[in-house]
Structure formats: structure tokens, C-alpha cells
Protein 1
Amino acid sequence: MNDFLGMVRGYATVSELKKNHASHHKFKNTDKKSKNKLDEIKKNYGIDTSDMFHLHCGLHGKGKFVLHGFFLRNCFEIVWLDTKHEVHG
């Protein structure tokens, strides 16, 4: 995790972070668990987010540790810490 945080601090933009750590597979937010979580966020916090990003702690969509969340302005809001890549594995 410390390696990942070190890499993240080195990126100049959020776009760079997404390019290097986002899942290379199409986002899989069509499952019931993800849909329910997105609906809950919208209802409880008034945040309209249609997609969660899957940021892998390894480069190029690799690595078992995955952060599921969404970008709100330039902040990544974490929804799930997926330490074994099981949410959408």
C-alpha cells in the first residue's frame, strides 16, 4: 500500500492516476451490490454518481488490492477496500 501511495503522490493529474491504475476491463457496476451502493450514496448524500472506478494498487489494472470509489471533483471517495479483488474478481 505504501508503494501505491508513493506512486499516487507522483502524478500531476487525476487523469494520470486513472490512466495508470484504473481497471482495463469495462467497469462492472451492473451487479446488485454496486447498484445498491450507488443508489445509497445518491439518496444519503445527494451525490449523483453513475460509475464507480476500480483503482488497482498495481500499475495497469493489475494487483489484488483494489479501491472502489468515485471521483468527486479531484478527490477519490473510497466506497470499498477490496484487499483480495473479490468484489468484482
Note: The chain has one domain: 2-82.
Protein 2
Amino acid sequence: MSWTAAQLQTLYANAYRAIYLCPTCGETLNVVLSRKSDVLCSVRCPACDLNHLISRHNDPLREQFRDYTPAEAKIIKSADKWQQKPVCPIDGTEIEPMSQRSLARASNVVARCRRCDHGVEYTRLQG
């Protein structure tokens, strides 16, 4: 027995929000986090005895992963500008912008989705 396509979509959507519940029975999953950039974790349901490696290569949405359009990139930048959490337009995962301050009063920002690995780079003025 294995998880259905719909259950896998739920599993991935929840895992990238740090919600580790079995999509079949609701039991808390056993999680082993990964240090690899393309693998989030390995999960196992103790009740159903099902397991899965949650990675970009196994993702049910992997065929939809693509670069952001200029309009999507603008929305991500705008959300960051207004101090809101940007959301990946492809898979709905929250994006955590990473900034590095330069000597000028600006920050270089990389806003990359952990799930699809696409992102936007820009400069945030005034910090």
C-alpha cells in the first residue's frame, strides 16, 4: 500500500509548512530532516507503516516547476517591500527572503522557494 497522488500532494504541501501529519490517518509522522539541498526530509507513519522521501525529484508538482515570470517576481518583491511573507506563485510555499547588507544603505536579497528552488534576486534599498 502507498499514498495516493492526492495524499502525496497534501503530504508535500504540509511538509513545506512544517506540518508533519499522515494524509491517510492524521497520525504524527516520524521525520528525519536532510542536509541535502534538493531533499527536505524522509517521513514515516508509525500507524500506516508508509514512508516517503520528500524531495524536489519526487514532488507531485515537479512538472510545473519553472522560472518566475517578471510579473510574479514583481509580486514577490512587493510583498517583501511591505514586510509580508512572499508566497511562491508556482506551489504556494512561503518564501523566506535572505538578505545581506552592503556597505551602502542597501541589502542584496535572494528570495528562493525551498520547494521548487526558483527565486528572485534584487536590492532592497535602505536596509
Note: The chain has a mean pLDDT of 93.
Protein 3
Amino acid sequence: MAASDTLDWTAMMRLARSLNLPGVCEDVRSDGQPCLRAHGRLWLWWDCDHNAPGFRLPAGEREFLIASDPETFFVTREEFEFNHVLARPDRISRRWILGNLSLSWRALAPRAFVRMFPGEGPPVPQFADY
């Protein structure tokens, strides 16, 4: 990705909004960092301390991502206890972002909603309930 293609929070929000998923709203985390919530739960955020986007992941996937591409994916002490990962915005692909956001949005959706659209999207991963 060229330096001019580096993502910032505005570009991340625009990318997430391009999915046109219902139940997504802008908010601010308790630490004051901007975020998007899906169905009332943390979905995508910007870590201002590390200038990097944060993502939810199914349990066990974070270690795989970090091991497979440590130059792109990392975790901070603050995020360690959750199934979250941060990504360097100059290295992450838009395709990965869109795939992750689609999958995590579906995982956060109420089960009744998922039942209404059984074939519409990726399988529903199980996230820890926190």
C-alpha cells in the first residue's frame, strides 16, 4: 500500500460505513477514543496512543494473526485480556478489514436477527460475552 493510501480514522469509518450494515453507530470509548458500535457493542475503534485501528476477533484468532504477520498485527497490554487486535494502518489490507468487519458485525447481531437472514453472510463466530 502506498503511503498516500494509509488509513486514518476517517477513512476507517468510511470503509466500515460502506458495508451499509444496520445497527452501527458512532461513539466514544470510556478511554475517550473514537469507535463504532454494532448492536450496542464495541465493533471498530481507533487507538490514538498507537495511531492504529482496533478490531474484534473470534477467540484464538489473535495469536494466529500476530504470529503470521507481526509487522501488521499487534496487541497492547490494555487490549490483551480481550479478543482484540490492533493493526498498523500502513500495512493492513482493505479486503481484510471488510472481511473482519462483516464477520464481527454478524457475531454481534442478536440471534433473532441472524435467524432472519440465515444465508446472508459468513458463518457466525462465537465471541466471549464481555
Note: The first strand starts at residue 24 and ends at 28.
Protein 4
Amino acid sequence: MSDRQRPDGDLVRLFEAARTELPAEAFVERLERRLARSRRTRLGIQCLLLALLAVAAALVTPYVARGSLAAMDYAAQRLPDLGLVLNSPVGWIGSLLLGAWVLRRAHVFER
């Protein structure tokens, strides 16, 4: 259809008749219901994912603890003086300094 042709009158009337505006109150109520439903759905999904994460953490924890104990046993056998150093006051001060440095690098002390 070119710009010079006139639009079909029947078609225009059908479009105008089909166009109905929602009252403002009904539109707002419908929008609020949809938003509340989406919030509830999102909250339910977040709770479900948190529960799955907690279950996964509970299932993995024994293996992580066992691996950590095996790594420390290996380190204690290979470096027997390391345990003595870590239990000394110098080791405590060193670990405190290292921890403070890590926290500073992670920007924990900044506001």
C-alpha cells in the first residue's frame, strides 16, 4: 500500500472498536498482583537454592575435613618444625600480621 492510497474504512473502524482502555484502578491492581507473584516466586527460588546449597555443603564437609587433615598430616611429616613455629608466640604474631594484611588487601577496614 503506498502513501497515496486511503486506508480501508472498515479496517480502521474494527481497530478503533477493538481498542479498549483499562480503568486505571484495575490496571494498577493487576500490576501489583503480578509484581507480588513474581516476588514470591523469586523468594521461593532463592530459598530453594539456599537449601540446596546447605545440603551440598553438608554432603561435602566430611570430604573437605578429611582432605584438610590429610594435608596437615603430610605437612607435619614433611616439615616437623612448622608445628612448633606456629605454636610459638612468634608464630602467633606472624599469623596475626599475615591475617591483618589479608584483611587489608580485601578492603575490610575501609568504609
Note: The longest helix spans residues 24-78.
